[in-house]
Design brief:
heterodimer, A: OB fold (Dihydrolipoamide Acetyltransferase, E2P), 2 domains, five-stranded antiparallel beta sheet, elongated, B: 367 residues, 11% strand
Amino acid sequence: MKKSILFLFIELLLCQYIFADIFCKAKVLKIGGTEIKGNAKIENVSLKIISGKHKNKIVETKNYLWDEKNYNTYIKPGDTIVIRINETIDGKIDRVSIKGYRRDKILFLFLLVFLIVVFLTCGKKWLVVIASITVTISSFMFLLLPMLKNGHPPIIACGSVAMLIALAMLLLILGFSKKFIASVLSLSIGMLFSVLLSIIFINLTKISGIFMEGSRMLLTATRSITGWTISDFRGIIIGSVIIAALGVTIDIIVDIVVGMSALHNAKKDIARKELMASGLKIGRDVLSGMLGSLFLVFTASSIIMMTVYTVLKTPALRVINWEFFAVVLLEAFIGSLTFVIVIPITVLVSSLIFTKK
Amino acid sequence: MKKSRIFYIIFHFIFLIFYCLYADSWPEPPDYDFYAHPLLEVSNADDIFMLGKVLNTVEKQGQKETLNIKLLNGKIVKAEKYESEVPILTKKGTPVLLTQNKSEKTVIVDYDRSSYLSILAVLFILAVLIVGGIKKLTGLTAIGAGIIFVIFIFLPLILRGWSPLFLAAISVILITVSVITGINGLNKKSISAIVGTILSSIFVMILGLIFYPLANINGFSLEPVQMLNYFSKNYTSFPFEKFSELLISILLIGATGIIIDVAVCVASIMEELISKNSRIARKQLLMLGLKAGREIAATVSNTLILAYFGSELIFILAATLSIKSYAQLFNNEWFFIVVFQMLAGSIGFFIAVPLTALTASFLMVKK
């Protein structure tokens, strides 16, 4: 008993030691001789590290080229690549391995293209667009993911971050006004509805959440990092339903609220019933274009897995009942249902807020 | 003593898997065992799947349990259930999925989820009917037809060696035309929305064709792509090779929905502007349309980012768990793919505003 606990402890230490790798960029100086071993071609490479704390050191490593060409990193002298350095405990370089191509330059080039497109197409609105995208992405990166990693309950973490993003976006689009209050209220009701619906259907379909892309990785990682259980995986599916539906729901709410407020401004003594009727009409008009957007996003994100099932000739009945597919369908349907349901809710809430009688 | 040793072995095993998953250039051949993967189940071609409901337990013997199951057609069969890592809890009335192989042995493999999912689908259709009216169902059926096209025609054909990009372009055109004409009928408004959508999809495609090869993207940091590679090599006569093209087509199909949304909105605003002032000059109409379109684009700017982030939350969380530095994050392949999917799709609907406005102003006004 004691022995195995000791082993476990050593393993954990090892784990930390291995995961405390350093990733940095390096320049290929020259490629020495190659040797063939089994199904791999091994190149002896000498590299000059150009970033990080080991900058300007020259190291030797091996580049493994498998007969499976897609896993390989093909290099030639003068290329910049990303390497992974394993350090010894006293901070010296122990082992260097080639991690892959350098991509950050291209990524930033693409971001530049994105900024230019936004600037050209959005005119004066470009600042609002960039601000809302920055708020969204940074609250995911610096708030949601760290919160989930630290073991906060996923529903609460996802819900609160989603609410925060929604508040920021609505403030940017609408400013602080009656419209803002109406949309926040309707959004909260809509989100509550989608959470309830997801809880009901996840329990009915008995989804555990551990048969998803990445959940095996997550499970192994969380066993050593936080004390997650299966119920948290269910929570994370509910959280992803909330987040996926958030964008479409905000769109539809903003459209309705803005339209209704414009109507109310044009005709101050408009009756509540009349206002509700025209609000519903606006909602219906917007709805038709949006119905497909979530479905297509979810189709797109499951295409590769569907191709794998096609290759394996898995029968349709098996695929539909398969947890991965069930989760995709569940998320797409609940997300779409949320923004359909939110139309009458918004119409009701904003007519109550805008008119007195 | 024994238990802890098993735990140790399991831990060791998991640790190794985890380590392999993170190693791109690791001195081990990259074909680890996909057969035990939670996303898969390799079944025999002659297995028959069927649905049923649990009646009662007959006997329990170690890891094997025998149950009476009532099938959908009323027949009662005996089925076996084996203990697994994630146990299937069977009570009276639990709907389950059964499989029967050649030796007539019936085994419970999973819960029956399709019945509850169809309840959800019916709920959704009902909500659309009540809120939107029967007319909105045409747009919905068009989307459904598009998705069926993607699954039953697109996927088998790319496995026969057709170009995914070509098929994706066809499915985008089909989805766009059927959805827009389904909503509005065939008129000038629809034509300008269709032209705007297709032109912006082409723009997105060109972006993908430029940036993916530049960044050496083939998708092999994603588990499903590795599986596709492995199984198409071992199970089909045409090994699938166009991974980069497949990723671009995914990008296209995912962005289509929102591009259609924006294009339809812009086109209907333009039509409304003309109906209010039929003598409006083309340039003035274009300016007004652009101004209104920008409002729409600003509102939807986050939609695609949120939708993709939501649909891939588990994967993104798992993949970022071990990320320690920005050098590692920004150079990762999956990160590039995720960011590109979100932002290139967004570029698609930003660019749809001027393209649709331009087409509409040429179609709707003579001079």
